[in-house]
């Protein structure tokens, strides 16, 4: 199939290190994690996380609507506003019928559901919110963006665990390719730093347990890595066919060159130890992009800091890209933003293409001996990057890889 | 009666981010651009914090804030003990 080039013309982010794309980029390049004890997690086995702080989300979202939005919805809406403004688009003037919204999430409003459960059990039905369902369902980020921006084209919420963000970008790209829309607002959001989810991650064995300063705990690809640290946030992109973007005078940040997705079909939490199926997602993305593996200048890894993921992924990177391109893993700084992670990391990959800078992996001196990969450590590395990939490998074995290139 | 119960002002500004300058005794939920979902949520917060039960459609929708205040004052009477169990704390 002959695909039209798809351009990233806008980018918006809200993360534990910044409320905008620029501040997030600066924070990720600084290589220091903001992970800290979270008061709301008092008494939990894992009582720390990387959270979005220093912003009144309700004020930022605006009056009379914030009450009906879960934190995950507010993140998405704020990131979408930044992305659309960044693209130089004005929702008051566009043909909303040609605008699609594709915003993924892994857990949606599970935090809101839990709050409502507590209210119902302790105080009865009259104490629950009439917006209880809206605070819960995973489709509300896409729906609220559509409402706020008069986007009446198709909208949906891809849900593929930690790869939801890349899945959303890939689906939106396909919709543009097929002519289902002219503009796609695409990305992902997540906020599950609340006791039930944090306890679940602790009990699953995936989460790093407290050991000194939480900010030093997430160390992707380190020999002494101890598990994931939770993050939260959102990243949203504006995607358009490159020819349309050029026609209206927009300057693309990057192009989506390819995407690949596979499913391990192996185990709910453990990646298949061979990494073959995840590797097949890489191969599919490269094939889709028409690239040879040695043309990849940079890998933005999934790098969760769990023993199993990082071992499997390091071997996969070694096999898939034998020329040893520089590797980063933003979760060292941001924590694991779950469903939003893939979108945030794709956004950071776009910025690497634009700036020619690969951010360092936080808390890493050197990768585990035997991981024969070129991890960027300590400081950002200045290197020309024309072609880059971002990996997302989700719980449930849902793998998604996106190939991005300079315009 | 031309005063507004302080809880009304507090809820409108804190939960619904209605600018304080717009909150007048003669304001209605309609004039404050509070839609039916917002009014229903408002009723829950009033019930949870003041213990005042009211049919949100009938009482809150068409009434002025002065009317609502008078109703709340009548129900609360002299007791005025405030329950302070928040419906939400992490949103």
The largest chain-to-chain contact, stated as pair and per-chain residue counts, equals: A-B, 26 and 22 residues
CATH topology of the largest domain in chain A: Peroxisomal Thiolase, Chain A, domain 1
CATH H-level homologous superfamily name of chain B:
ACP-like
Give the helix proportion of chain A (percent range). 25-40%
Which class best fits the helix and strand makeup of chain A? alpha/beta
Anisotropy-based shape of chain B = globular
Low-confidence stretches of chain A: none
Number of structural units classed as domains of chain B: 1
CATH architect. name of the largest domain in chain A: 3-Layer(aba) Sandwich
Helix content of chain B: 40-55%
InterPro entries (chain B): ACP-like_sf (IPR036736), PP-bd_ACP (IPR009081)
Protein name (chain B): Acyl carrier protein
Organism (chain B): Streptomyces griseus subsp. griseus (strain JCM 4626 / CBS 651.72 / NBRC 13350 / KCC S-0626 / ISP 5235)
Pfam families (chain A): ketoacyl-synt, Ketoacyl-synt_C
């Amino acid at each position: 199939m002959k695909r039209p080039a798809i351009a990233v013309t806008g980018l918006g982010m809200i993360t534990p290190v910044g409320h905008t794309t620029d501040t997030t980029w600066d924070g990720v390049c600084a290589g220091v994690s903001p992970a800290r004890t979270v008061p709301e997690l008092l008494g939990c086995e894992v009582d720390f996380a990387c959270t979005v702080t220093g912003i009144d989300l309700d004020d930022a979202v605006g009056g009379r609507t914030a009450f009906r939005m879960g934190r995950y919805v507010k993140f998405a809406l704020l990131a979408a506003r930044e992305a659309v403004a960044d693209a130089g688009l004005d929702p008051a003037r566009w043909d909303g019928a040609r605008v699609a919204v594709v915003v993924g999430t892994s857990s949606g409003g599970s935090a809101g559901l839990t709050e409502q459960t507590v209210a119902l059990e302790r105080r009865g039905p009259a104490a629950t919110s009439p917006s209880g369902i809206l605070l819960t369902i995973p489709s509300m980020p896409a729906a609220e963006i559509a409402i706020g921006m008069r986007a009446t084209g198709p909208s949906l919420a891809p849900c593929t665990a930690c790869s939801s963000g890349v899945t959303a970008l890939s689906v939106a790209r396909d919709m543009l390719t097929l002519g289902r829309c002219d503009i796609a607002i695409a990305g992902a959001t997540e906020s599950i730093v609340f006791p039930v989810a944090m306890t679940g991650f602790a009990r699953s064995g995936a989460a790093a347990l407290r050991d000194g300063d939480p900010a030093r705990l997430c160390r992707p690809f380190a020999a002494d890595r101890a598990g994931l640290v939770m993050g939260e946030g959102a990243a949203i992109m504006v995607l358009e066919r490159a020819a349309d973007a050029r026609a209206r005078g927009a300057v693309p940040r990057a192009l989506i060159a390819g995407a690949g997705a596979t499913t391990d079909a192996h185990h709910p939490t453990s990646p298949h130890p061979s990494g073959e199926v995840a590797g097949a997602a890489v191969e599919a993305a490269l094939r889709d992009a028409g690239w040879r593996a040695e043309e990849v200048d940079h890998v933005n890894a999934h790098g969760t800091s769990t023993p199993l993921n990082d071992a499997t992924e390091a071997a996969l990177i070694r096999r898939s890209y034998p020329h040893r391109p520089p590797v980063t893993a933003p979760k060292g700084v941001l924590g694991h933003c779950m469903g939003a992670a893939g979108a945030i990391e794709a956004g950071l990959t776009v910025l690497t293409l634009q700036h020619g800078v690969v951010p360092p992996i936080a808390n890493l001196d050197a990768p585990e001996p035997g991981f024969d990969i070129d991890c960027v450590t300590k400081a950002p590395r200045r290197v020309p990057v024309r072609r880059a990939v971002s990996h997302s490998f989700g719980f449930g074995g849902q793998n998604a890889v996106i190939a991005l290139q300079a315009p | 009666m031309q005063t507004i119960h302080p809880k009304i002002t507090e809820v409108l500004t804190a939960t619904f981010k209605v600018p304080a300058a717009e909150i007048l005794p003669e304001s209605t939920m309609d004039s404050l651009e509070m839609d039916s979902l917002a009014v229903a949520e408002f009723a829950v917060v009033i019930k949870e914090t003041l213990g005042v039960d009211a049919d949100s459609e009938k009482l809150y929708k068409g009434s002025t804030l002065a009317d609502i205040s008078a109703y709340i004052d009548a129900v609360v009477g002299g007791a005025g003990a405030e329950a302070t169990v928040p419906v939400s704390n992490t949103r």
